[in-house]
TrEMBL record:
Its EC number is 3.6.1.17. This is Bis(5'-nucleosyl)-tetraphosphatase (Asymmetrical). Pfam families: HIT (PF01230). Keywords: Hydrolase. It is an enzyme of class 3 (hydrolase). GO terms for biological process: nucleotide metabolic process.
Amino acid sequence: MPADPDCIFCKILAGELPSTIVDEDERTVSFMDINPGTRGHALVIPREHAKDLLEISPEDLAACSQAAQRLARKASENLGATGVNLVNSCGAAAWQTVFHFHMHVIPRYENDPLQLPWIPKPGDPDEIKAAGEDLKR
Ligand code: AMP
Ligand code: ZN
């Protein structure tokens, strides 16, 4: 039985939906994303359902990060990736579409088609400082 019957990733964990699992440990499972951004794109999830970055336990977050590092190494060693992006979307505003925490591990290759989702340009220094102060509060 999935922990959350409405959650597709809980269904993957319960074996009720197919997946290509590539890494597992006590706290995490990693499997291939069915809409890969690049070759080898995988997702790391905690076994325990948590909807997002704000809800996941620090222990599970640490375990997911370690699993992501293992996959990043494999992407380099086995797939010939020359870079890796770790992506987490927290909340619909941040493009999260599946509400079971997951970390995308996206191998990167020279001249692959991915692009930065924002255009870097200098911000107003006072506003940057003010935002930093607000964050620190
Ligand atoms: P996000 O938009 O950050 O919430 O990412 C959700 C990801 O889950 C997307 O990249 C989807 O392609 C992926 N996804 C959705 N359903 C499945 C599935 N059944 N198996 C593997 N990946 C999936
Ligand atoms: Zn879930």
